[in-house]
Design goal:
The structure holds 3 protein chains of 3 kinds. By secondary structure, chain A is an alpha/beta fold. Chain A is 37% helix and 25% strand. Chain B has 23 helices and 14 strands. In chain B, strand 13 (562-567) and strand 14 form a beta hairpin. Chain B is elongated and about 85 Å long. Chain B starts with a helix and ends with a helix. Classes of the chains: A alpha/beta, B alpha/beta, C mainly alpha.
């Protein structure tokens, strides 16, 4: 299953967030999108999922998703784990996971239960806490639950928004190991990360997003070595040109 | 007054004379009701369109005014000039009481409270025996005022027209003043007027009371027009009809109240004549038609009623020439709480500031200083705690521990309004401008704390001297920021880059000691960012101190004197641009580390 | 007041309170799932009572005509939208739900039931007809409003209330009706200090409440509704469509309203406009629960019923005032506890 976006433009109210972005996720590939804060990475994922108005084209296995609501995209095999996780805080871990299977619930309770067992095998800690309410979990456990819930939908393409956000290094290592395991199971992954170095290690292909535009892309190993990545995060060395005087300096004496 | 105003006034006088002299009794009564309801709807338009409050209980205030006047006239023979004072006063007082209780609620809670209040008043009027109960109070004498007898319906019509004109004048004056701008700022959320020193709650109560006072006056006029009272016209259904009038006419402009009242009254009359014949049954079907109309309007304007209706209202008339003072401001004063300035010293001191949300420590013992005349930037990756720290400094959030001082005065527990009074002005990450106000008026909002003229002076137009000086100040700041050519354009028509500069001009109008900019470069194109950088450097040259929070490294590197970098709620680096950029800890914070 | 009167008042209060509980639960549920303060909830009650009364008086069920008309409208709107989006998948199922089922209910009520039919059949037809109103109202009125703010939805709900009341007047006329008492098995509940009619209402209400909680606690559909209420965005991420949830919520609310009518019908005369006051009392109970807590809402509603019974004994003219004057301080208390109440409207 492939996901392709062409000429994506999106706005947050009046602020332009994405401009003519082209992104492609090949079958069973891991693609990462990195970039500084405010670059538009989360906006990109939201646009791919249909969560905000956009112009341009998004195609899933060739099907145009323009009139397809986010709920239906889930049923088609696209799943998103957003930055805010969007868990059902006052419901139990088990309920959260069970609801993850909503789009294929007609297969029956037994099939859903079997899928839940698979998720518990992947994240044993969730199994230990299956009756606990979601908002009482720690940050890392919430991330696992969000990921587990997205997996319950049996996605073919998984969109991950900053999975390492706010997590301790050991937990981050676990998360990325899980990402590799998912790839082995045939799930394609689009990974948005601020932690560029970690993302480059796990991805096949990388895009660098800056001010809503793709400034750099290529095989992850090549992009990782490119010095321009540091520039996009930390700004270019002080500009050499003199500033232009555009505003007459009139001062009010008060 | 402009030529256009003279034309409108002449037309109004002609129309009223025409009705009085030539119209039949039926039409005089119809016109009387239109203007009466328009007076009430005017108050609703003020509340809803300009302050953003929805009330389902406005008819209750009409009832209070009416019954106060009617009862006093019948039972105690109180003369007309006194009953109007009683009616308006009672309605306003009731509003103050109810407002104090309910206006602290937001959104739909407030509306539901007004609905309940309206039902309570309706039943209350019905059960109090001296007021005649549900059978009504009759025998109300004709009105005599200043020796004139208003027994005939035509004379009452003239009085009602006068009443509406007075109401319109008062409300229009109010909106065109310092407090009026603060009221209009409420539409963008309570944070906006508070950021410039206005007391949002008190503004809401004042608006609520003003609308109630207008309703009370309408009630007084109603009593002497009908000479009979019962609770029916003051119940929930009428309240909702008033709301329909305000909404249908368009809450974005005051004339909408008259248009809406006219449409509803005439439509209702037509429907009452036509529907029973059509449906074969008698009954109250007009409300169903209004309901369907309302639903259609809402379906087309699902983002809110105001944007759609703003399109329906007539284009704003050419702005009347605004008074602009010349020379030094004489009436405007600096708020008393400001400590005097001394160049080069520490302006803002953040000392071990902490903010905890339950178990999460968002800001963890951060300390740094901002000196006079510097531009300091606060940076950090996502989740670093910059916005939280920013909110601690602006007073939007109280600190859990530590101290934040401005020239030695503690500001960390004061709240946004008092922090603004101490000389801190800010811009917002998501631009908060009053869309349908001009650029100039938006900037003038910043001068709120410099003026003193209050509500009544504004309504009676006694604030012109102060207003002239405020306008001069606003123009000067716009000139300083390069926006003076756009002074009369509506703020919504500006591109984002200019809107951000307008927010800075507005902040400068407050004559701040410290300017706080919240992501001013977000969403700007390259040229706009360069303009902004030039403006900020110029302001620094003039002695303005600036603290910026932003993500845009390149922009920050260009303009900041010093940088403070945060990660996970802690300060990890501080210093000049190049040094910070090369600091390995900063690089790791932004680029991450291998997993 | 002696013990006997006290006992009677308590029974009176519990009987009406039991119905207010159902209305409060429906209001809370619709609000949490859709953010609509569903003011017309009471119209479901009056329509149910008056339709049963129409059967018993030998009239045709006038309600069936507008329901059929709106069903056609809803199908038309659905088809137009699907065509515009060039997605006809599942349209058949939607037409069945919005068109075929309501039409079937209308046909059954119109042709299959009359004054000679047994009471249970008349009741079933009325309940089916009123329940069909739920999804139709959502599809035709609220879905076109998209992502409106709660305030706009409230104004819309009030506008809808006026339309439905006028519809009620047109269909049912201005006369009120009172349903005959429940046919209870003879001798079953005799000898108890509680009047059988009251006990029947309280028990029926309790059963419905139990089913309500079982649905939300143990079925996937019920959990999906809860999920929409807790986190709407999260619900969309797992494939739960907010419109689907809204329709289901209003269907359940309509069903509860219809049953409430059946329960309260024997106790008071119901007119075409009685629904509003009933719903408002349920609403007072609902805001005791902050428009989000079911147990408190239920408790609050029982208190409202008791308060109403006692104040109608003590000061009957002021009965309504006492109940509604409660709303303001309750709302104040609740809004202070709600962190979202200060957002810009």
């Amino acid at each position: 299953m492939t996901l392709e976006a062409r000429a994506l433009c999106a706005f947050h109210g009046r602020i332009p967030a994405l401009h003519e972005v082209d992104v492609a996720v090949p079958p069973s590939g891991i693609v990462t999108v990195v970039g500084p804060n405010g670059a538009g990475k989360s906006t990109l994922l939201a646009a791919l999922m249909g969560r905000l108005p956009m112009s341009g084209e998004v195609r899933l296995d060739g099907t145009d998703l323009r009139f397809v609501s986010p709920e239906r995209r889930v049923a088609m095999g696209l799943s998103l784990v957003p930055e805010q996780r969007d868990l059902f805080g006052t419901m139990s871990v088990a309920d959260n996971l069970e609801l993850g299977a909503f789009c294929w619930r007609r297969a029956g309770r037994r099939a859903i239960a079997a899928e839940m067992e698979r998720v518990y095998a992947l994240f044993p800690r969730l199994g230990e806490r299956h009756a606990q309410l979601a908002h009482t979990l720690s940050g890392g456990e919430r991330q696992m639950l969000a990921l587990g819930r997205a997996l319950m939908a049996r996605p073919r393409i998984l969109l991950l928004d900053e999975p390492s956000l706010g997590l301790a290094p050991l937990v981050v290592r676990d998360i990325f190991a899980t990402v590799r395991r998912l790839q082995a199971q045939g799930v394609a992954i689009l990974l948005v990360e601020q932690n560029a170095r970690a993302a480059f290690e796990v991805a096949d292909h990388a895009y660098v997003l800056e001010m809503g535009r793709v400034s750099l892309q290529g095989p992850a190993t090549d992009v990782a070595r490119d010095a321009r990545v540091a520039d996009s995060y930390l700004g270019r060395a002080a500009a050499a040109s003199a500033p232009i005087e555009l505003i007459p300096p009139v001062v009010l004496a008060a | 007054m402009t030529f256009r105003s003279w034309v409108l006034a002449a037309f109004a006088v002609a129309a009223i004379s025409g009705v009085v002299l030539f119209a039949s009794s039926y039409y005089v009564t119809l016109a009387s009701f239109v203007l009466l309801y328009a007076t009430v709807a005017l108050g609703l338009t003020l509340m809803t369109g300009f302050a953003g409050l929805i009330s389902f209980g406005q008819a209750a205030f009409v009832g209070i005014g009416a019954y106060a006047a009617g009862y006093l006239a019948v039972a105690h023979g109180v003369p007309g000039w006194a009953t109007v004072l009683a009616g308006v006063a009672l309605a306003t007082l009731a509003a103050a009481g109810i407002g104090a209780l309910t206006l602290s609620m937001g959104g739909h809670y407030l509306s539901l409270a007004t609905l309940a209040w309206g039902v309570v008043v309706y039943y209350g009027l019905g059960i109090v025996e001296p007021l005649g109960g549900f059978n009504g109070l009759s025998g109300i004498p004709a009105l005599t005022l200043f020796g004139l007898d208003f027994a005939s319906e035509r004379s009452m019509f003239c009085l009602i027209a006068l009443g509406f004109a007075l109401a319109f004048w008062l409300v229009r004056n109010l909106l065109d003043s310092r407090v009026g701008r603060a009221v209009r700022a409420l539409r963008a959320g309570a944070d906006l007027p508070e950021a410039f020193g206005a007391h949002a709650f008190r503004l809401k109560v004042a608006v609520f009371c003003t609308a109630a006072g207008l309703a009370g006056m309408a009630g007084w006029l109603y009593v002497y027009m009908q000479r009979f009272l019962n609770p029916t016209p003051f119940g929930l259904q009428m309240s909702i009809e008033y709301l329909f009038m305000a909404v249908m006419g368009g809450v974005g402009a005051l004339w909408g109240a008259l248009v809406g009242a006219g449409v509803v009254v005439v439509l209702k009359q037509v429907l009452q004549d036509v529907l029973p014949a059509l449906l074969g049954r008698s009954g109250n079907f007009e409300m169903a038609v209004f309901g369907v109309l309302m639903l259609l309007i809402l379906a087309r304007a699902n983002a809110g009623l105001w944007p759609l209706l703003a399109r329906w209202t007539r284009a704003a008339p050419a702005a009347a020439p605004r008074p602009v003072a010349s020379g030094e401001p004489a009436v405007l004063q600096m708020p008393a709480q400001r400590a005097p300035a001394t160049a080069g010293e520490v302006l803002l001191c953040v000392d071990e500031a902490e903010k905890r949300f339950g178990g999460l420590v968002a800001v963890n013992r951060v300390s740094f200083e901002v000196r006079d005349g510097e531009i300091v930037a606060l940076l950090g990756p996502n989740g670093a705690g910059k916005s939280t720290l920013f909110n601690l400094i602006t007073g939007l959030l109280p600190a859990s521990a530590g101290a934040i001082t401005l020239r030695g005065q503690r500001i960390d527990a004061l709240g946004a309004r008092r922090v603004a009074a101490r000389g801190v002005a800010r811009t917002f990450q998501h631009v908060k401008l009053v869309a349908d106000m001009s650029v100039r008026d938006n900037a003038a909002l910043g001068c709120h704390l410099l003026g003193r003229d209050g509500w009544l002076r504004a309504m009676l137009r006694l604030d012109r001297r102060e207003e002239a000086e405020i306008q001069a100040m606003a123009l000067a700041q716009l000139r300083r920021c390069g926006l003076e050519d756009l002074a009369d354009a509506p703020a919504a028509s500006l591109p984002l880059g200019k809107q951000r500069i307008l927010e800075i001009a507005r902040a400068l109008c407050a004559r701040p000691q410290l300017l706080l900019l919240d992501e001013p470069a977000a969403g700007l194109r390259h040229q706009e960012k360069r303009n902004l950088a030039v403006l900020l450097k110029q302001l620094r040259g003039e002695g303005v101190t600036v603290l910026i929070v932003d993500h845009d490294m390149e922009f920050i590197m260009d303009i900041a004197d010093r940088l403070v970098v945060m990660q996970f709620g802690q300060k990890i680096a501080e210093g000049e641009a190049q040094a910070v950029r090369d600091d390995p800890r900063v690089q790791q914070a932004y680029l991450g580390s291998a997993a | 007041m002696d013990m006997q009167i006290f006992g009677l008042l308590v029974q009176d209060g519990l009987a009406s309170g039991a119905v207010y509980v159902l209305l409060a639960l429906a209001l809370v549920m619709v609000f949490t799932v859709t953010r609509i303060v569903f003011v017309p909830q009471g119209e479901f009650v009056s329509c149910s009572v008056l339709t049963i009364a129409a059967f018993q008086q030998g009239h045709a069920p006038g309600l069936a005509v507008p329901v059929a008309a709106v069903a056609l409208l809803a199908c038309g709107m659905e088809t137009a939208e699907r065509v515009r989006q060039r997605n006809l998948a599942g349209l058949g199922a939607r037409i069945a739900l919005l068109g075929a089922l309501p039409m079937a209910a209308c046909a059954f009520a119109w042709f299959g039931v009359d004054a000679r039919s047994p009471a249970w059949m008349q009741t079933a037809a009325a309940v089916a007809l009123v329940t069909a109103m739920g999804p139709l109202i959502y599809r035709t009125v609220f879905r076109p409003m998209g992502n409106a703010t709660p305030l706009v939805l409230l104004v819309a709900a009030i506008a809808l209330h006026f339309v439905l009341v006028a519809l009620g007047l047109y269909v049912f006329g201005p006369e009120g009706s009172r349903l005959p008492g429940f046919e209870l098995p003879a001798g079953l509940l005799a000898g108890l200090p509680v009047a059988p009619q009251t006990l029947a209402v309280v028990m029926a209400s309790a059963v419905l409440v139990a089913v309500f909680f079982a649905f939300f606690g143990h079925t996937l559909s019920g959990k999906a509704l809860r999920a929409t209420a807790v986190c709407r965005d999260g619900a969309r991420l797992v494939g739960i469509s907010p419109d689907h949830s809204g329709e289901l919520a209003l269907t359940i609310a309509a069903f509860i309203g219809a049953i409430s009518g059946v329960l309260i019908g024997p106790f008071t005369t119901i007119y075409y406009d009685s629904g509003f006051l009933l719903a408002l009392k349920g609403f007072v109970g609902a805001i005791v629960g902050g428009l989000s807590g079911y147990v408190l809402a239920a408790g609050g509603s029982l208190v409202v019923g008791l308060l109403e019974a006692f104040s109608s004994y003590g000061a009957s003219a002021a009965k309504e005032i006492i109940v509604f004057a409660l709303i303001v301080p309750l709302l104040l208390w609740r809004s202070l506890a709600d962190p979202h109440s200060q957002e810009a409207s």
